[in-house]
């Protein structure tokens, strides 16, 4: 039998174009009518004979071509579509396939339009924890060669890097401190600071909380020689400023000599600026570096001026955490947050840095009677630490080792020889000063803290032992009531001060801001500038008439005199 | 407790205690039986007490109770979704609370005061439409007066969010985002920060 290769025309109900013309039978069937093609010879259901093979082959080819014809609307062609349907049916083998054949056909068509894999992918979100971890990782990388490290240890007897973990351990006994993680990060950050800056001694001063970010503060003493350059720069600026002021004053005097009426000059001269203390002495004895988080770069705080300290005493503001933030207050603070931070650090240090009495002593060849000379102290090699119990019970075993800040804002009083500094408000200060002859004396260095006055029956310090259960290993802890957040501990020869807090002094009464100054007095009224009512027309006429009479009278007199002669 | 070993139960606060304690200023002494003399502070209250036969003093214990109550009421906070309110009105813990997401945790509006809401009803209708009555039945922190009296920070690389109250200095609230952990503690002197408006 002549088998037809390829397509099997028996699958199709409707078929290719009729090869032979209509020969007879029922009328020409339209394609949509059932029975279409049945009237053709060779396709009638009653036809069993196989027609001429050549024609059949051609018929098959034409049928296939027709099936492969692509639809203009959807881009599909019938051949592929049928192939897909049959594949799907044979794969799934549904029951009653012939009943749901139309649905299957529709589904296959839908499947053509399924989206392929999206070429866009979600951006890989870097979680903030990852970024933070990267920053901390930088801390852990050991910088510099190991040789440098060994050299440093040989040169200086005392290591410049403080043992933050040890300090943290002691404070932890008292329930104060940061988490171990954070202490360790701070430790590493201090080590980095050490490597970068020429540092003689370094200490973790504490942490001040802020609204947006916190500050971690390191107290540092730079090696000598490094600070002198900065001093010269600043002095140069001051000289220039003074020179300009002098020029300005000379010009004013010249103008006053001229007799032109001018608006009256103001007789107000601002009080002269109190010069700040030199770097390395007094309030600027230490240099402070801050950073917001360990891992961020350390920023050096500028030295503090007395005006800033005086103003900082009168305002109470939260820190935001950004060093360049302005401090909006009354009286207006001269500087931005970095200056305010430095001023508060200076006040806290002066008020709360204590050590066991006798740990520091004055060198024996200097006399301590001078107010300005008693700035230097050194460790007492023969210091015998009193037992912890004694340290807790009596406050006389502790002494301040930072000079107090006078009302002027400096540690060492300066006599400006012009006006007395009576403009500051009285605050609860620890000094007992008597302003004799405009001189201010603060307590000398190394005074015992039992001399500190309390406020409203609250003692200035509270002392406790860290534990009552194991007295051998307990640590004496001192809490300041005047600056809540300042703590000190002592155990044998070791002692340390630290601050954790918001950076404000304790005030039992509410903070009262300074009142604005009284309104300036009016310029004293003189007849030259008092307003008078303009003369009315009648008055002017009357005045004019009077003048003319006077003139006429004068002329008559002259005439009379002339005639007399 | 003074030493974490012996604990004594505190009685709930009464309104008189609250009113009187507000007027006491200064630090706590540390001794619960310390007596503040009322005569200096408030002569009327002292007179009333004398009339009713008691001494015109207020004990530190009462001040402590009142302070704790005040702190809880003013700044006790919880994250949004941690507690749900049933249609019957009772409030209980939400066992399905999975924590806030990082984005939500940085916003002040996702934390609520855990007290009777004071100004829920003052919101506009538009805002009310967005709320979900089962979780949003408390006051949010956003509308605290004065504005900015909370400091919100992410610590430890963003794994912990810490809120600090500036009104009661020492109140710290912590929450680990995407977990159920949250809580607040108070370490401090027990005094309200009345200077807050000057400090912001």
UniProtKB/TrEMBL annotation, chain B:
It comes from the Eukaryota. The keyword NAD does not apply. The keyword Cytoplasm applies. Keywords: Cell projection, Cilium, Cilium biogenesis/degradation, Cytoplasm, Cytoskeleton, Flagellum. GO terms for biological process: axoneme assembly; cilium movement involved in cell motility; motile cilium assembly. One of its GO terms (cellular component) is kinocilium. InterPro entries: RSP9. It is found in: Cell projection, Kinocilium; Cytoplasm, Cytoskeleton, Flagellum axoneme. Belongs to the flagellar radial spoke RSP9 family. This is Radial spoke head protein 9 homolog. The lineage of its organism: Eukaryota, Metazoa, Chordata, Craniata, Vertebrata.
């Amino acid at each position: 039998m002549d088998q037809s290769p390829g397509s099997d025309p028996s699958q199709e109900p409707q078929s290719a174009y009729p090869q032979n013309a209509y020969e007879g039978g029922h009328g020409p069937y339209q394609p949509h009518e059932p029975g279409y093609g049945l009237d053709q010879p060779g396709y009638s259901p009653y036809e069993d004979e196989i027609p001429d093979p050549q024609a059949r082959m051609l018929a098959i080819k034409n049928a296939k071509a027709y099936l492969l014809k692509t639809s203009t609307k959807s881009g599909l062609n019938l051949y592929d579509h049928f192939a897909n349907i049959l594949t799907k049916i044979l794969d799934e083998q549904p029951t009653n396939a012939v009943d749901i054949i139309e649905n299957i056909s529709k589904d296959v068509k839908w499947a053509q339009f399924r989206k392929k894999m999206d070429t866009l992918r979600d951006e890989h979100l870097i979680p903030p924890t990852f970024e933070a971890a990267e920053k901390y990782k930088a801390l852990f990388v050991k910088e510099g060669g190991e040789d440098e490290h060994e050299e440093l240890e040989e040169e200086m007897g005392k290591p410049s890097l403080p043992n933050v973990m040890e300090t943290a351990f002691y404070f932890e006994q008292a329930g104060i401190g940061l988490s171990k993680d954070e202490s360790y990060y701070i430790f590493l950050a201090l080590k980095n600071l050490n490597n970068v800056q020429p540092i003689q001694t370094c200490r973790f001063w504490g942490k001040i909380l802020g609204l947006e970010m916190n500050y971690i503060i390191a107290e540092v003493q730079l090696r000598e020689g490094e600070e002198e350059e900065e001093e010269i720069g600043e002095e140069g600026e001051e000289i220039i400023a003074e020179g300009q002021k002098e020029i300005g004053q000379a010009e004013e005097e010249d103008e006053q000599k001229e007799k032109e009426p001018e608006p009256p000059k103001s007789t107000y001269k601002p009080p002269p600026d109190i010069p700040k203390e030199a770097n390395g002495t007094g309030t600027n004895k230490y240099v402070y570096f801050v950073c917001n988080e360990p891992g961020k770069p350390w920023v050096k705080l500028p030295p503090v001026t007395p005006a800033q300290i005086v103003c900082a005493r009168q305002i109470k503001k939260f820190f935001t955490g950004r060093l360049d933030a302005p401090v909006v207050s009354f009286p207006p603070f001269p500087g931005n947050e970095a200056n305010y931070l430095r001023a508060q650090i200076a006040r806290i240090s002066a008020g709360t840095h204590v050590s066991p009495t006798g740990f520091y002593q004055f060198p024996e060849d200097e006399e301590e009677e001078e107010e300005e000379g008693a700035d230097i102290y050194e460790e007492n090699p023969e210091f015998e630490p009193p037992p912890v119990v004694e340290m807790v019970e009596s406050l006389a075993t502790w002494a301040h080792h930072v000079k107090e800040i006078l009302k002027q804002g400096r540690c060492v009083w300066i006599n400006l020889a012009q006006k007395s500094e009576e403009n500051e408000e009285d605050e609860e200060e620890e000094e007992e000063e008597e302003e004799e002859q405009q001189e201010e004396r603060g307590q000398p260095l190394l005074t015992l803290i039992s001399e500190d006055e309390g406020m409203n029956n609250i003692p200035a310090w509270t002392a406790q032992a860290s534990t009552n259960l194991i007295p051998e290993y307990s640590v004496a802890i001192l809490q300041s009531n005047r600056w809540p957040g300042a703590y000190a501990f002592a155990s044998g020869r070791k002692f340390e001060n630290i601050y954790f807090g918001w950076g404000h002094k304790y005030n039992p009464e509410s903070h009262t801001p300074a009142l604005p100054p009284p309104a300036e007095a009016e310029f004293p009224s003189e007849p030259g500038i008092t307003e008078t009512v303009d003369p009315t027309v009648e008055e002017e006429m009357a005045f004019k008439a009077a003048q003319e009479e006077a003139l006429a009278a004068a002329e008559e007199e002259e005439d009379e005199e002339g005639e007399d002669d | 407790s003074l030493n974490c070993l012996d604990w004594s139960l505190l009685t709930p606060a009464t309104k008189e205690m609250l009113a009187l304690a507000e007027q006491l200023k200064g630090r706590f002494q540390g001794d619960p039986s310390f007596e503040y003399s009322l005569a200096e502070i408030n002569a009327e209250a002292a007179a009333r007490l004398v009339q009713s036969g008691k001494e015109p003093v207020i004990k530190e214990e009462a001040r402590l109770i009142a302070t704790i109550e005040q702190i809880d009421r003013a700044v006790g906070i919880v994250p949004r979704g941690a507690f749900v309110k049933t249609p019957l009105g009772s409030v209980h813990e939400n066992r399905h609370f999975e924590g806030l997401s990082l984005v939500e945790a940085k916003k002040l509006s996702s934390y609520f005061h855990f007290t009777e809401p004071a100004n829920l009803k003052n919101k506009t209708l538009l805002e009310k439409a967005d709320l979900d009555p089962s979780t949003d039945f408390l006051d949010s922190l956003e509308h605290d007066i004065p504005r900015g009296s909370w400091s919100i920070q992410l610590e430890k690389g963003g794994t912990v969010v810490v809120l600090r109250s500036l009104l009661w200095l020492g109140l710290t609230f912590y929450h680990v985002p995407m977990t159920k952990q949250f809580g607040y503690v108070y370490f401090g002197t027990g005094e309200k920060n009345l200077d807050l408006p000057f400090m912001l």
